[in-house]
Specification:
single chain, about 260 residues, alpha/beta, Rossmann fold, 10 helices, 10 strands
Length: about 260
């Protein structure tokens, strides 16, 4: 087993390609590092390669070229079950089991890992508090929850076994503006407390600027640039400028509509 260093990136893409069996190239020549404890946002339009990149990390997809390394080990050399259980995964549609209570949904991975019933119960209570849900929610089913509540449960489930890495694929994209704003605030608070390594997919520049330590801008399966939020706003890269201009135009329209 390879030993990891505190200075080694948590995740590294080394000249990674991904193509479909048809030959269609979804990702080409990706070189990218995700540092421990940072929130790296993958920003781009639909079809830019964001979700493909995310799925290569927990080996839902396998590179057709190059190498993805997690904690210093190639994903193709890792036990895929152990790899996935060590990484939290949150998606837009949440993916909760409808016939499981909230407690069973959150406790799924700990139960598979052999935790005791009491330990799982205590962990569920802790996580419900962490994501802003009341303890009685544990006995409810997903259909009894609002969209925002289901998303909170999805985050709690991803954190259940205390993974060091968290993957989030547009987790707040389907929510109304007020709920999305609230969950973004809660995410920032959680990240300050937990210091996870997070890879967060979005097409929304405002969300990227708010949540990201760095922003990796993607287009047509390629990495365009990686910048801090402050650098992104000052960037002279044409695509980055287009995103900033579109955000400014949207804010201007919103202000005019409110006046």
């Amino acid at each position: 087993m390879e030993r990891t260093s505190a200075h080694e990136p948590a995740i590294e893409f080394r000249n990674v390609d991904y193509a479909l069996p048809s030959g269609q190239q979804l990702l080409a020549g990706l070189n990218l590092q995700v540092q421990r404890g940072e929130t790296l946002v993958l920003l781009g339009r639909s079809g830019s390669g964001k979700t493909t990149t995310l799925k290569l990390i927990n080996r839902l997809l396998t590179p057709t070229g190059g190498e993805v390394r997690v904690n210093g080990t190639s994903t193709t050399q890792s036990d895929v079950i152990r790899l996935r259980r060590s990484i939290g995964y949150v998606i837009q549609e949440v993916g909760l089991f409808p016939h499981f209570t909230v407690e069973r949904n959150i406790g799924l991975v700990p139960r598979i890992e052999g935790w005791t019933v009491e330990r799982i119960h205590l962990r569920v209570e802790e996580l419900l508090q962490l994501v802003g849900l009341d303890p009685p929610m544990a006995s409810r089913y997903p259909h009894q929850l609002s969209g925002g509540q289901r998303q909170r449960v999805g985050v709690a489930r991803a954190l259940a076994a205390d993974p060091a890495i968290l993957l989030m694929d547009e987790p707040f994209g389907a929510l109304d503006a007020l709920t999305r704003d609230q969950l973004q605030r809660e995410f920032l608070s959680l990240q300050q407390r937990l210091n996870k390594t997070v890879v967060f997919v979005t097409h929304d520049l405002r969300e990227a600027l708010r949540l990201g330590s760095r922003i990796a801008l993607m287009e047509a399966g390629r990495l365009v640039t990686v910048l801090s939020p402050e650098e992104f706003l000052r960037s002279r890269d044409p695509l980055a400028e287009a995103y900033v201009d579109a955000l400014a135009d949207g804010l201007d329209s919103a202000n005019r509509g409110a006046s």
